[in-house]
Amino acid sequence: MLFAVALLVVGAAVLYVGSEAAVRGAAGLAGVLGLPAFVLGALLFGVDLEGLGAAVVAAGRDQTALAAGEIFGTVLFLYSAAFGAALLLAREPVPSPGRLMVLTPGLHLVAGAFAISDRYVARLEGVLLIVFYLAYVGLVLRSGRIPAAETGEAQRAGAPRSKAGLAVLTFGGLLVIAGGAAILVAGGARLVTESGLAAGFVGATALGILVSLDEVLLEVLPVRRGTPELATGNLFGTLAAFTTGVLGLAAVVRPLDIDAPGAAAFLGSAFLYALVATVFVVRGRAGRTLGAVVLASYAAWLVAAAAI
What we know:
The protein is mainly alpha-helical. It has 13 helices and 4 strands. It has helices at residues 2-33, 38-45, 49-60, 64-89, 99-116, 123-143, 145-156, 163-195, 199-210, 213-224, 228-253, 260-283, 288-306; strands at residues 94-95, 120-121, 256-257, 285-286. The strands form 2 sheets. A two-stranded antiparallel sheet has the order 1-4. It has a two-stranded antiparallel ribbon with strand order 2-3. It is globular and about 45 Å long. The chain starts with a helix and ends with a helix. Mean pLDDT is 79; it is low at 145-160.
């Protein structure tokens, strides 16, 4: 059991280091090549390389319930622990992005719900989910809201300006992410075997939390430093990415079986999104009260999912 936990911790650390390198390298490479900085936000920040890598590796190893649990657990953790912490630590209420950016990810949530309604995601469904996510990327590109925030993030990354150095940093980081994902999934699979816990529960809790630890920083730091648009962009972009793009990609690698805890994680994510979106649309901002509610909701979900 201790070895399994150690693998989870080491895998998460490797994932974090690799993702930081890939993000910094891609940010600088985009600038050197004259690419829109939004490319970084849409394909790396919103997708969350740690979560994507862990889900794909788990699916490739036929740990499909673990992969699905990790996908939904990542969203659940982001909307509860990460965003809740940001709201509690914020100096003032976090303003809402435009209604289009708040409500559009809900369509992707519905698409994901249809895909998993029979507790199985086939390859064809996976392809359709990926196409649906690409449509979201196109919409955000045209809106011009998230790119502006992400551009500031990229400019602060401070990556080296050499094309060769940036390319090595980017692709080296991606290789490290793949290695970290392999370690993480090995630890998750061992924990499933040794603990007797359901694969979806381990994916949605231990694995989902570990691969999402950087999301806490991506939510808390922008809010504390006066750039909440970056935090809300990450919040809604990740929902769209994981309920369609990442879920679809994992299903293309290997069709996914969804167990009860994994389905519970999806329902928890849907509830928290609906709550956050409603507050943003109705009040135009979110504060500490919502932060306390989403954190309490996550604690309640953990208790309920452990009993499934």
